[in-house]
Amino acid sequence: MEDSGFIENSRTQMRRGVLEYSILLILDRDDEYASTIIRKLKDVDIIVVEGTLYPLLIRLKNMGLLNYRWQESTQGPPRKYYMITEKGRAQLRELDAAWSKLVQSIESIRTEKL
Amino acid sequence: MEDSGFIENSRTQMRRGVLEYSILLILDRDDEYASTIIRKLKDVDIIVVEGTLYPLLIRLKNMGLLNYRWQESTQGPPRKYYMITEKGRAQLRELDAAWSKLVQSIESIRTEKL
DNA sequence: TTTGAATACCTTGTATCGCAAGGTACTGAA
DNA sequence: TTCAGTACCTTGCGATACAAGGTATTCAAA
C-alpha cells in the first residue's frame, strides 16, 4: 500500500464502523429502498456500494431489525422497501448510546483526560 | 450470531474505525510503550488487546508514521517506546479532519438534513 | 414484436484486519 | 536455579466491505 493510501484506508474503516448505525438511522425516519439509502449516505460523504448494502440489509432483516415490502415503481422493476421494526428501534437506541460514548472517548483522548 | 451480539458487534466495529486515529492521538502527546497505550485506551472504554496492537504499531512504523526506541525498565525486560514522526503528525491532522467530518455526517443524518 | 437501455436485486471471490491463543525472552526475587 | 512477572511477537480464524459480474423486470423505440 502506498503512502497516502493510509488516510483513505483509515477513512474507510471509520465509515465502516458506522454503517449499520447510519442505515438504521435513515430507516428510522422513512422506509426506503436500496438506491435511496445509497444516495442519502453519499450525500453526507459516506460512500457505500450495492455489493456492501444488499448483504447488510439482508443480515439486518434476518436478525429481525428490519422488514421489507415490495412496491411498484413507475419506471422499472418493483422495489424492495425496507422498514425498521420495533426490535430495530430498540437496538438503534443502544447504538445511539454507543456512538455518543465513542465521540466522548475520542474527545477525552484529544483533550488529555487520561 | 445471537440476538444482542449485534450491539456488541457494532460497538466493536465502531471502535475499529478509530483505532489508528486513537493511537496517533495518544502518541502525539507522549511517547509510550504498548501496555500504556492499551491502558489509556481502556480508560476511555476502547478495548484493545496485544494481538491487535502489536501488528498495528509495526504497520504504522513501517509506513513511517511512527518510530521507536528501546528503554530500560526498573522491573522487567526493556520496553519499546513508540513516538510519532513528522509524517505521522501530518497524517494525524488529516485524520482529525476525517473524524470531524464523520461526526458531522452522522449528525446530519440524525437531524434530517438529507 | 423484438431489441436495448435503464433500473433493481443479488452472489461470488478476494483482501483486510481484529482477536484468541500460544510462544519466546528478559528480569529479579525466592 | 527456578519461578513469577513483564514485555514483545506470530499464527490461524472469522467477519465483512468491496469489485466484479449475473439475473430479472420494465418500457420505449425500431
What do these coordinates show?
- The structure is a homodimer of 114-residue chains.
- Chain A is mainly α and 114 residues long.
- Chain A has a single domain, classed as Arc Repressor Mutant, subunit A (Orthogonal Bundle).
- Helices cover 63% and strands 11% of the residues of chain A.
- Chain A has 5 helices and 2 strands; from the N terminus they run H-H-H-H-E-E-H.
- Chain A has helices at residues 5-17, 19-29, 34-43, 50-62, 86-110, and strands at 66-71, 79-84.
- A two-stranded antiparallel ribbon of chain A has the order 1-2.
- At the A-B interface, helix 1, helix 2 and helix 5 of A face helix 1 and helix 4 of B.
- Chain A binds a DNA duplex (30 and 30 nucleotides) through helix 1 and helix 4.
Task: Break the fold down into its secondary structure elements and pairings.
Two copies of one chain form a homodimer.
Chain A: H1 5-17, H2 19-29, H3 34-43, H4 50-62, E1 66-71, E2 79-84, H5 86-110
Antiparallel strand pairs in A: 1-2
The structure holds a DNA duplex (30 and 30 nucleotides).
Entry keywords:
homodimer, 114 residues, mainly alpha, Arc Repressor Mutant, subunit A, two-stranded antiparallel sheet, 2 strands, 11% strand, DNA-binding
